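Deliverable D5.2: sample structural annotation.
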Amino acid sequence: MPFIRSFYITNRFFYTAGALIFLFVLGFAIPVFSIVAEAAFYLSLTLLLVDMLLLYRTKNGISLERLTTEKFSNGDKNAIRIILESRYPVKVDCKVIDELPEQLQIRDQQFDLSLEPGTVKEVNYDIHPTKRGEYAFGVINVFASTILGIVRRRYQLGERKNVAVYPSFIQMRKYELLAISNQLQAFGVKKIRRIGNNMEFEQIKNYVSGDDYRKVNWKATARKGQLMINQYQDERSQQVYSVIDKGRVMQMPFEGLSLLDYAINASLVISNIALKKGDKAGIITFQQKVNSMLPASSRNMQLNLILEHLYKQKTGYKESDYSKLYATLKRKVTQRSLVLLYTNFESLSALKRQLPFLQRINKQHLLVCIFFQNTEVEKIINTKANDLEEVYTKGIAEQLSFEKKQIVKELQSHGIHSILTPPKELSVNTINKYLELKSRGLI
């Protein structure tokens, strides 16, 4: 039975069989072709047996290993390596088909390569997950054939493996590295100031051993006749809460990712930046009630806790209840904090229903409402209308875009900060707003 499951006949076999049948039929009319057909039959049979012998003589002719990271990053390219080794004494051609997770919906991926005797080769490819959760890889199918190409031997190799797809830690590390190397401006992010060096003047004091000589106040030194230095007030550690709306408005997909996943990825990025700069980071998720809360902290394990906390979040189909969010913030977050609210308002009327609760939250904390531009609407606006139907469509799109801008003005008129951003620019715009508020001393 193992032989039957691994034995495959190629198209070359069927072409040869068709040619032999034609010769045998032709031999009824022209006898000489019967002799040719018989010789060709025995030759073909010999080649078939030789091909089978070459493929099946070696017990484990192909071995391989699939290498992946322990976790995949959602919305990013994740590298996968397959290392193949041939133990055949002859050159073999291989078709490699990896059984990919069903979430990817990829059914036509195939890699063709040739393996010389005793050689090792790699197959490298990327997958681009767009949903968090567990992804199940199956076995790897390798179809080996010799230069004769009459039959193929199928190998089912590698281990079945489950890999968890987490919020985009690749994006998080990218911005972390840029922050450390002060290269954030290259990505449109304003320069980060170091904690304790914010240039907020406090007093002039006498120089003591160990003070930074770059802070010497030469005018005061000349008047006093001794070294005097400027002392600056250190920035205090602040609480930064990423509050994620998981209601139906966050289910809308853009380029494969839902708005919820964009918000989750941005929350991980801003939490990491805040922790690196000495602030405390926390997470709150809500829908018709507050579903989960991770209190703000700057402990060493906080980022891992945030990552695990965000991994399991899913959208629902109900409208979010902002009154429950306000009650939870009032009861459990007693220190004034920066509250980054990731949500989506599609109309001014939708905002006005929740505006009283947003105002109350803003009185207690510094609230920033973050919602999304509909990039598909913007594409329609920027496209030239060629007929009456397209004119109507463009007019509706412009109305929707205008209403988003009205939402921003409405929030500003009530003293609430806001960010209206395309989904792909969410992380950059959120970091910019965080740095702006820090530089202005609002938190």
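Annotation notes: The longest helix spans residues 388-413. The domain at 169-194+235-439 is CATH 3.40.50.410 (Rossmann fold).
The annotation will be released with the project's public dataset once the embargo ends.
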